[in-house]
């Protein structure tokens, strides 16, 4: 039996009466990689903050090396060797890598003057220890996200930690960068340091960790060796119910109807060439391809954002010139962009205003907004899409990722769209919300007879929700699969062969 | 780090080109007289710019310094006349303390209420100016009453040259004070932890706290030092022009901020240097000077200063965005 480094015992933490952590126990052994899985709002970050001394538990205890404490202060936590790498890394973008690495040590030694030689030496040693090739004289802002993360890790290691807590470390990394990071994490582990990996990404957790704990609504619901888990059991523990994994079926109507969306000879120099596609009412067509295959450009062209394209686009048989966004909206095309936060939503504005943003003209008489009508429309949208909020006056920024995505959907549905283009519809959304959003999209396709084009990196998402999947490579549609006749594996093999 | 990625090198290059161009248009530019007077005009704006740089590095914005400078100089000179004091050191220490005290008001509001520095300094600047005019007085103290000891002090020259026609021109010794202060601020920013804490604060207040900087100390240090520099500059200014005018330094805020931004400091904080600021000050003074030599109407100077702010800010913002690519 390996020895235990840290033991949370029956920790309870309440915020104004509501239990964020309810009798949580968690054991971290020396030198293990432990995953803490949970959806957003499940209490993951509260656990981190109790361990790092930011929060003081209402009851329960924290034992470190067998010695029991009722709580820790941030300084004590650091002294006991607990280091947290936050999602934002807490680095100074305007300072060099070397200074970022050395600041902690300098402050701890209560230095008044800066010895730049020792700053460089400290930094060089910290980077060498991690075995990464980063120029210590570079400014942190010039580094990639992965580079910044490595600097944050190197900084954490400088204080000889016993436990490294990493909060959602893979969020902004590419697959290749994730692999590099995993190699480094294993290397750190080899030095006897424990790692607590906090995440909601199933595959990565299964890949890296030795033991796994799942938290849901502030309670530990499962714990054990990672080999006891697979994706579906983790999902079940995280969400509390089984997530259906049936596929979407679409039957062509007995009497042939014209396609909702028909593309022919669509070309944009440097992005895509000679694309043809028909999507019928009720169809959900997946668009898959590597980053840079041209898939996003296609979506943007269909929404009038790439006026330079040639070829024809017909909606219900009528050709539409998609030279501006407004013509696309008028033609009944709705687009939910990849980065809903920067492209789609006004975060500080209310839910109602966000939902109504594109249809103000329709609910206004002589440019004066018909308030009761607006309120009714917004309220019915909130209800239809099951947006979890007590009122439509709340700023969208306060909603969870899943609910924000629903606001975007609600907005476009009010435009009475015929074609819905979704680019990465569930990026950054937790599993439970993800399934909900999928269900909403499928229902909408069927009920409203929408033609849906879904672009995603997540092949499983496409396989589960689309009746047809088109694979794109170097600006061309290279293959079309009927989902019923294919598998996630086949498509992902195909994409891998493109690399 | 390649040479050309350093802002100072770029600014120096632009400055050199501008000097050559101006020299071509107007050969009088390179005359020793003109160069000496240029350097003289650098002193006050330059010392104030050092204070503005500190605030800007921390991510703040200061528009109160002209008011503090006026208050420090007018109160001190009034006091000297009232007490009949003859001396140089005490008045300057006084002016520095008045400036620092005013600065601490800024620091208090910025720290305690987490207010936006621009708003705080707009308020305090206006309050101090109004208070000075309303309570202390509105009359100018000009040459007939101005303390001669200050005039003599500011007359000191580093060296003089005699020109062909027998007249003298000299370089004021006040540039040495300016250079010494600049060197001091540079060393403080580069080699002390309090200096680095200013950069850290400008890089991100949250992260600076997590690393363990005492931001209260940093904020008070920044605003008090900026105030002290302004107070000192005010005192030196009146000694150099033999006049204490309680309505002085109107529009100076814009010029100084333009110079600092021109020197490559980012208005978002965290980036900038003393050397760059000094180059920026020189460039601004030079442009104004050549407009005068070329007999351009003074109202057009406003347009030029305004354009400098807009263009320089756009350039630094563009630089910072590219860095983050």
Highlighted features:
heterodimer; A: 499 residues; alpha/beta; Rossmann fold; six-stranded mixed sheet; 35% helix; globular; B: 325 residues; mainly alpha; translocase (chain A)
Would you summarize the structure shown here?
The complex is a heterodimer of chains A (499) and B (325). By secondary structure, chain A is of the alpha/beta class.
Overview of this protein structure:
By secondary structure, chain A is α/β, with parallel strands linked by helices. Chain A is built from 17 helices and 22 strands. Chain A has helices spanning 44-51, 74-79, 97-108, 116-130, 145-157, 175-190, 202-208, 231-239, 295-302, 325-330, 340-344, 351-356, 371-384, 401-414, 431-448, 459-465, 488-498; strands spanning 4-15, 18-29, 33-37, 59-64, 67-69, 82-85, 163-167, 194-199, 211-216, 219-225, 261-268, 272-279, 284-289, 310-315, 318-319, 333-336, 364-365, 368-369, 419-423, 451-455, 468-473, 476-482. In chain A, a hairpin with a 2-residue loop joins strand 17 (364-365) and strand 18 (368-369). In chain A, helix 3 packs parallel to helix 5 (145-157), helix 4 crosses helix 5 (145-157) and helix 13 (371-384) crosses helix 14. In chain A, 44% of the residues are buried. The mean pLDDT of chain A is 86. With 325 residues, chain B is mainly α. In chain B, strands 1-2 form a two-stranded antiparallel ribbon. Chain B is globular. The interface between A and B is medium-sized, with 21 and 27 residues.
